[in-house]
Each structure stands twice: as structure tokens, then as C-alpha cells.
Design a protein that fits this description.
By secondary structure, the protein is of the alpha+beta class. The chain is 48% helix and 14% strand. A hairpin with a 4-residue loop joins strand 2 and strand 3.
Length: 125
């Protein structure tokens, strides 16, 4: 049986507050969801711009899946037919790595907290 390989990153919007999430007002939850969505889309778009393009399959198939009512997202290649994205990201003995997803995540990492903070501040004003 073939091992399933997924190449994704997971962006969470509320890890530290998960236990208290139900106590937050709905407006704050919506602001956090918006921040998660914006960061997820930024990582997806940056990955599309940076991925090695042959036929364009990897570029066209990088996507976002949302869980936990939009507070958690997984960005990457979610279809088994895109298994070779892992080879592009990590390389092989014969194929040098040309990562796109990892660097896109790293570029967004510094902006993520600022996005969440900005969205929550809009609600609190």
C-alpha cells in the first residue's frame, strides 16, 4: 500500500486562546477568522508565485482547507495526485529542492500576528 504524502502547512489562529474561545464575543471570533483567511491566502498566493512550473499543475492546485470553523487552515497540496510537491519542496537524490511553500510560510510568519492584531483592533474600536 502506497504511503500518502501531503505537502501542506497549517496556520492556526487561536492556539493560545483555544480553551477560552467560547468565552470570546462573536465579533472577535470573526476578526480572528478574517486574519487566518488573509494569512492563508497570502501563503497560497506566495506559494503559487514561487513554485517551479512545468505544466502548471502545482501552481494551479495549491489550495486552502479550513477547519475548526475557519480558525485553522491548512495550505498546500491536498490531492494525492500532487504527491510530487514534496519532491519539489525537499528535493531528492537526483532532483534539487526548490521549495515554495516553506519560504512562503516563513515570509508570512512575521505578518501573521500583526494581521490578527489589526483585525481584532478594528472590532474593539
Amino acid at each position: 500500500m502506497a504511503r500518502r504524502v501531503r505537502t501542506t502547512v497549517r496556520i492556526t489562529g487561536i492556539d493560545r486562546l483555544r480553551a477560552r474561545l467560547d468565552e470570546l464575543p462573536e465579533e472577535i471570533k470573526e476578526a480572528l477568522k478574517k486574519g487566518v483567511k488573509e494569512s492563508s491566502e497570502a501563503v497560497r498566493d506566495d506559494t503559487r508565485d514561487g513554485v517551479r512550473v512545468g505544466e502548471g499543475t502545482l501552481r494551479d492546485n495549491v489550495g486552502i482547507e479550513y477547519q475548526e470553523d475557519g480558525l485553522v487552515s491548512t495550505v498546500g497540496w491536498h490531492d494525492d495526485k500532487d504527491y510530487y510537491a514534496a519532491f519539489h519542496e525537499r528535493g531528492t537524490r537526483r532532483f534539487p529542492a526548490q521549495p515554495a511553500l516553506g519560504p512562503a510560510l516563513e515570509r508570512e510568519r512575521g505578518r501573521y500576528a500583526a494581521r490578527l492584531t489589526a483585525e481584532v483592533r478594528k472590532v474593539l474600536r
